[in-house]
Design a protein that fits this description.
The chain is an alpha+beta fold. The chain has one domain. 49% of the residues lie in helices and 13% in strands. It has a two-stranded parallel ribbon. The radius of gyration is 18 Å and the shape is extended. It starts with 12 loop residues before the first strand and ends with a strand.
Length: 106
């Protein structure tokens, strides 16, 4: 049986993106205290594990993995959306989106 893995097909360079800080999303912030803390812990733990485990994985499989910290963009986007060109009008559009069911309420 032919292997379907990327590595078996010749891929040697990979890009992995860290988990964004979910505690900054409106849905998590609305749930408050314990949920915000749990989200922060999940993101921190996952991203630290990615930083520790990916280099070892890459070395053992003789591949290259570049880890990109999405929070370098995500956190400034949340706290200062204007620098990315977002206005108050955009903010209202995001708030009206029901992420739980994937349906916009516009």
């Amino acid at each position: 049986m032919e292997s379907l893995s990327f590595q078996a097909k010749g891929a040697r360079k990979f890009l992995v993106i860290t988990v964004p800080d979910l505690s900054l999303t409106p849905q998590v912030k609305t749930l408050g205290g314990a949920t915000v803390l749990a989200a922060k812990r999940f993101v921190l733990t996952t991203n630290v594990l990615l930083e520790v485990e990916l280099p070892q994985f890459a070395l053992s499989h003789q591949i290259s993995i570049e880890l990109v910290d999405i929070n370098e963009i995500f956190v400034p986007l949340v706290y200062n959306p204007r620098i990315f060109g977002f206005t108050k009008q955009h903010r209202h559009r995001f708030q009206s989106y029901d992420w739980r069911c994937g349906v916009g309420s516009e």
